[in-house]
Design brief:
The complex is a heterodimer of chains A (295) and B (392). In chain A, α2 crosses α13 and α8 crosses α9. Chain A contains 13 helices and two strands; from the N terminus they run αββαααααααααααα. Chain A has a two-stranded antiparallel ribbon. In chain A, β1 and β2 form a beta hairpin. Chain B has eleven helices and 20 strands. Chain B has a six-stranded mixed beta sheet, sandwiched between helices. In chain B, strands 13-12-11-14-20 form a five-stranded antiparallel beta sheet. The longest helix of chain B has 18 residues. The chains are: A mainly alpha (295), B alpha+beta (392). Chains A and B meet through α8 and α9 of A and β6 and α2 of B.
Chain lengths: 295, 392
């Protein structure tokens, strides 16, 4: 009994000091995260005016989210996020695997190559893709010179261009978490699987993939969630026929008459959808981990 | 019947030759060991039999089938890996069932066979656990079960006990022998631990620098090493090097490298009698030498030397004496029995007699000082090192 109460005292003291230590962070989050969010929430329940809002309660914005033709942007955004994630996963996995198996020197060099794009401004990188994909751009010029095509491909300003550039931008966010799990993978396990009769493909699906699940989860989160709210890339390389949620939200604020409540309601809906996705993925992950604790 | 036939197998890694022209036949049901220092090529050889490496030249056959270029998953061979390599994301049951599931065996049969295998390795009540929840010895058992359930023709064991502590190692060694007896298939065992190899093997091959130095039953290699390396690597020994001065019917005179001539009676049944004037090395195991304060009764077949105790190492089961004879140093092991040659224990600086039977003086052609490296000499025999230092 005595030992127990002493522990509680220690725990209390511990709690107090950890509270004090985390106070700056809490204040920061409160001022720059929670309060702005509250503003967004409040705005979503107000009535739009030409430039600003009228402080009259209204549910019109939310009603419109579901009835005003906004399902298509949501659908497009989800499709884009799924394509981007799958593209990053399919391209990123072999790259991460190769880096993880490379020798120490090559490993570091390759990792630097993965990180270098972060040093250049995103807009510059997107514009270089525009130059690359344009009607008379590098890609078309090369293909035509090689005689592979007779007319330039119209890639820029298509949905394909959006997916291409999205995959390009988000690829490192998939490669790095995958690399970190594959780097820890004991490759003799693959030898063991092959020794027990599994060919390369079976060994990959029964050993490598399950042991990389944590990296796949992490990479998927890092790619999928930002991809859902993509604005810049669709705006710069996409077309006006396919508008994504991020673009729609921007237009609601940019175009006069402005509709702040609509923009707020759309972003909160997106937020809820992301939260739902997170919960589902967390649930899946928990189930994956829990399997190991049955004993 | 033969299970594994290696014909002139070599493996190069770049300019480094890991395995150099090994030819060998391993009989069906045999427990065969490859023994040698790290880097001698024994693991590469095993990996070639398992299929993880392809020989640069030569052929490997499993029974009548040539398997030289077959991938690992097409060979009737399974491996116990050094660190067990159990799949961390699977239960022990799933680990053991892995091979059968790949072969798409019906579920009910898998269940029965896994249970049977788990019973063989005494892990039947732990099937639901994960590898990180069991001890090293238990992991070892699961690795054995996981391999044997596939009914391989040959089981390969790559330093399987290296990660276990001494007591467990001794226990698992006996367990391995029992399992070998129970399943009756060929085991190929790779180790750098000569105690393990000697204890467990029907036959073993001593390897050095990619080549097989000697192969045979453990006692044969220990008692009759064919080369200086084999004598050095298996057990401990005293090397005496010198030039044959005179050869008689049952003894020879040796001009020892220390300058003082010593005569030794040796076994007259030489395989190849030494030529007078040639350099030879004698290997004399420390436990073959008796040590006494009193001069033993002279006999025809006994070698005797008088020396002085320089060092005494009490090791529990036996004591190691370092005895200086002239400029030679001998290592002598003496067991602690209640029956001493006399009452009082031997002491430092004491004058003693060393004596041994002539058949225990094993002659090897060649020169220990030239064939072994300085480092090997310093582990293998202080005697030879002392000689080398003086010689140079």
């Amino acid at each position: 009994m005595k030992a127990k109460s002493r522990r509680t005292v220690l725990q209390k003291r511990n709690n107090l000091s950890s509270w004090l230590l985390s106070l700056p962070t809490i204040l920061w989050l409160l001022c720059f995260f929670l309060i702005p969010y509250l503003i967004v929430i409040i705005y979503s329940f107000l009535t739009p005016d030409i430039y600003d809002v009228k402080f009259e309660f209204s549910l019109a914005a939310y009603r419109q989210v579901f009835t005003g033709g906004y399902l298509r942007p949501f659908f497009l955004s989800f499709k884009l996020a799924i394509y981007t994630t799958l593209g990053c996963l399919l391209l990123g996995f072999p790259v991460a695997y190769y880096i993880a198996r490379a020798n120490e020197k090559l490993k570091n060099t390759l990792l630097i190559f993965i990180i270098i794009p972060f040093w250049t401004n995103l807009i510059i990188r997107i514009f270089s893709w525009r130059i690359f994909l344009a009607h008379s751009g590098v890609l078309n010029a090369t293909l035509m010179n090689m005689g592979l095509i007779s007319q330039p491909l119209e890639i820029l300003r298509t949905d394909l261009a959006v997916v291409l550039v999205m995959v390009y931008v988000y690829l490192p966010y998939m490669i790095l978490p995958l690399y970190s799990v594959l780097e820890k993978l004991d490759f003799t396990l693959l030898n063991a699987a092959m020794d027990l009769g599994a060919n390369e493909v079976k060994a990959f699906f029964s050993i490598t993939l399950p042991l990389a699940v944590e990296g796949i989860f992490a990479g998927t989160l890092l790619v999928f969630i930002p991809a859902l709210g993509a604005y810049l890339i669709p705006q710069l390389v996409g077309n006006q026929r396919s508008l994504y949620v991020g673009q729609v939200i921007t237009y609601k604020i940019k175009n006069i008459p402005r509709n702040w409540p609509m923009a707020s309601a759309l972003s909160l809906t997106l937020l809820l959808l992301v939260a739902l996705m997170l919960l589902i993925m967390y649930g899946l992950y928990r189930r994956h981990v829990a399997r190991r604790q049955v004993s | 019947m033969e299970d594994i036939i290696l014909e002139n197998v070599s493996k190069d890694f770049g300019s480094f030759t890991a395995v150099d022209g090994v030819s060998l036949t391993i009989k069906s049901g045999e427990l065969f060991s490859f023994l040698g220092p790290s880097g001698c090529g024994k693991t590469t050889l095993l990996r070639m039999i398992a299929g993880f490496e392809t020989p640069t030249s030569g052929t490997i056959r499993l029974g009548n089938q040539e398997i030289t270029d077959l991938p690992p998953y097409k060979r009737e061979v399974n491996t116990i890996f050094q660190n067990y390599s159990l799949f961390p994301h699977m239960t022990l049951f799933d680990n053991v069932a892995f091979g059968l599931r790949i072969k798409k065996i019906p579920k009910a049969e898998i269940k029965d066979r896994v249970r049977e295998m788990m019973t063989l390795v005494k892990m039947e009540d732990q099937a639901h656990k994960f590898p990180d929840q069991i001890s090293g010895g238990q992991k070892q058992r699961i690795a054995i079960a996981r391999a044997l359930i596939n009914k391989p023709r040959v089981l390969l064991l790559d330093e399987p006990l290296a990660a276990l502590d001494l007591k467990l190692r001794q226990h698992m060694l006996i367990e391995l022998m029992n399992i070998h007896d129970a399943v009756g298939i060929t085991f190929i065992y790779v180790t750098h631990d000569q105690g393990e190899a000697m204890g467990i093997s029907d036959r073993l091959a001593v390897m050095n620098l990619g080549k097989i130095v000697q192969e045979g039953p453990p006692d044969d290699i220990y008692e009759r090493p064919a080369s200086i390396f084999a004598a050095y690597f298996i057990g401990e020994t005293n090397f005496i090097t010198g030039q044959v001065k005179a050869l008689y019917e049952d003894y020879l005179e040796l001009s020892c490298d220390d300058g003082t001539g010593q005569s030794f009676e040796i076994d007259s049944s030489f395989q190849r009698p030494p030529v007078v004037g040639s350099r030879v090395t004698f290997s004399l195991r420390p436990e073959k030498i008796a040590i006494s304060r009193n001069k033993p009764r002279a006999q025809d077949d006994i070698n005797m030397l008088k020396g002085q105790i320089e060092d005494i190492l009490y090791l529990g089961s036996h004591t190691q004496y370092i005895v200086r004879v002239g400029k030679l140093k001998f290592r002598v092991f003496s067991q602690h029995k209640r029956v001493y040659f006399d009452d009082k224990a031997l002491d430092w600086e004491e004058k003693v007699w060393l004596f041994w039977h002539d058949t225990d003086t094993w002659m090897i052609e060649g020169d220990a000082l030239e064939e072994l490296t300085e480092a090997q000499l310093s582990e293998g025999g202080q005697l030879s090192r002392a000689l080398k230092r003086r010689g140079s």
